[in-house]
Amino acid sequence: MKLLIPSPPRLVLLSVDGLRPDLYHAPHSLGRFPNLNALEQSGASAAAVESIYPTTTYPAHATIVTGLPPRAHGIYSHLASLDPMEKARPWCWFARALRAPALWEVVRASGRRSAGVSWPVSAGASIDHNLPEIWDPAVPDPHRDFETPARHSTPGLFGEVAKVLAPMLGKADPDQMRGEAALYLWNHYRPDLLLVHFVYYDQQAHAFGPASAEALAALDSVDQQIGRIRDAISHDAATTLVVLSDHGFVPVEKEAAPLAVFAEQGLFARGADGSLALRRLGAVAAGGSFAVYWLEKPSPDDRHRLEAAVEQLLTTGAVQEVVGRQQLETLRADPDAELMLDAAPGFYFSERMDGPPVRATLKDRGTHGHLPTRAGLEAAFLAEGREVAAGKNLGRVSLRQIAPTLARLMHLPADILAPDETPLALG
Predict the structure, then answer these.
(1) Whole-model pTM?
(2) For residue 114, what are the β-bridge partners?
(3) Percent of the chain, pLDDT > 90?
C-alpha cells in the first residue's frame, strides 16, 4: 500500500494597497469584483482589519510580515528621512531596517524558497527571487525608473522578467505589470511563498477619491489580476491564497500645511536669500497624520513656538487630535516623535511650506494615515485554501494577527512570529 504524503504547504500573499472591505462586501458589490466576491464566499474573511499607526503602507506592510507594531519592527513611516527640507527624501525601502524577523526569513530557515514582487521594505531581503519596491526619489515617475529596482533585485532576475513585460510597457497599468511578473515567478520557480504588492487602487484613490469611478476601475483591474493568479495556483491543493490590504481610505476636500505654520512661528531658519533652512524641527507628512520631531534638544523658546503653532493649527479645524508621546507609546508607534497631528474629517496634511495654512485640495481627493480606529481606515483580509473554512466571517481582527496566521498556514511553529499575538482561526 502506497502512502500519500501531503505536499508541503505553499502560500501566495497578495496585498491590494488601500483596499477597504466595504468596497467588495457582497451583496452590494456582487458582480463588480467577481474574484474578491468569490474569495469571500469560498474562504474566510474579516469584516474589518484594524491597522497600525500611522495607517500607511510601509509601517503596515512591515507589520504584515512580522506581526509587530511599528515601535517593535522599526518602520515608523514611509520616509527614512526626517528632514522636511530635503528635496528627494529616501523611503524605508531596505529590509535591513526591520528590527525583527520577517516571514521570508523563517521560510528560508525552514528550507523553503520565496519570491517577491514590489513588496515594501524588501530591498536586500533574504527572498530567493526578489523584485523589490524601490526607486530613485529624484525621478518624477517612480514607475518609469527601472534602473534602481534592477540594481536591487536578485541578480539577473529583473532582466529575465523584463523580457516578458516588455510588450506591456506603455499599455498596462502598474498592477497588470506586477500581476504578470508574479505569474512568471510562480510558473518558473514555484516558490513556497510568493508576496505581491498591488498599488494602482491606492494611486487612483489618492488622486480621485476612494469610491471614485477611477479608483473602482483600478480595483476592477486588480480583481482581474487576482483571478489570473487564483487560476494559476488552483491546481495545487497545497497552496493557500491570501488577499489583504494594509489600510483603508477616506475622502478629503481640504489640504492643511503644518510646515507653513511652523515657518510662520519661526521654527525654521532663514537663509540670506530668505529661503527656509533646517533648524531643530523634523517632520513627516503622512496624509491623515503629521509627525513632528526634535532633531536637536529644543530650547524653551522652541517648545513655546511649537505649542503656538499647534494652537494655530487647531483653530483652523484641520486637526482632529494631537497625539502626544504617552498615547504614541500606547499605540506602539514612533518612539522618536514629539507628537503627531491627526487630521479632521475632510482634511489631509501636505509638506507645503508657504501659503495659507488651509486651502481647498489641489491634488489629492483621498488619503489615509490617521488613527486606525477612524471609520474607513479598516483594512481587508480574505483567505482560501485546504485549511480554510468556506464562508467563515472572522469579524474585526488586528493587522498584528496576520503574520502568525501566515506562519501557521505554512506549518511553521506557531510562536515563530509575534508570539504574543493569537493567529486567526481560519478552519
Answers:
(1) 0.96
(2) 193
(3) 92
pLDDT tens readout for residues 109-158: 999 999 999 999 999 999 999 999 999 999 988 878 899 999 999 999 99
Contact assessment for residue 24 and residue 253, using Cβ atoms and an 8 Å cutoff: no
How far is Cα 318 from Cα 352, in angstroms, rounded to an integer?
15
Cβ-contact 13, 406 below 8 angstroms: yes
Q: CA geometry: angle at 158 spanning 403 and 174, to 5°?
A: 70
- For the CA atoms of 94, 52, 211, 405, the dihedral, rounded to the nearest 10 degrees, stands at 80
CA distances from 422 to 52, 344, 400, 403 (A): 16, 33, 9, 10
- Whether 163 and 184 have beta carbons less than 8 Å apart is answered as no
| 427 three-class SS | coil
pLDDT one-digit tens code per residue, 244-274: 999 999 999 999 999 999 999 999 998 888 7
Q: Using one digit for the tens of pLDDT, what is the confidence trace for 31-42?
A: 789 999 999 999
The residue segments making up the domain with residue 129 are 10-249+374-409
Shared domain check, 239 and 169: yes
Decide if 197 is inside a domain. yes
Q: Do 240 and 345 lie in a common domain?
A: no
Confidence (pLDDT) at 1: 44
Q: How many CA atoms lie within 13 A of 117 on its CB side?
A: 26
Query: CA-CA distance, 350 to 341, in Å (whole number)?
Result: 12
Max CA pair span of the chain: 87
Tell me: do 293 and 323 sit in the same domain.
yes
CA angle 234, 239, 244 (to 5 degrees): 95
> What are the cell numbers at 246?
494594509
pLDDT in tens, 312-326: 999 999 999 999 999
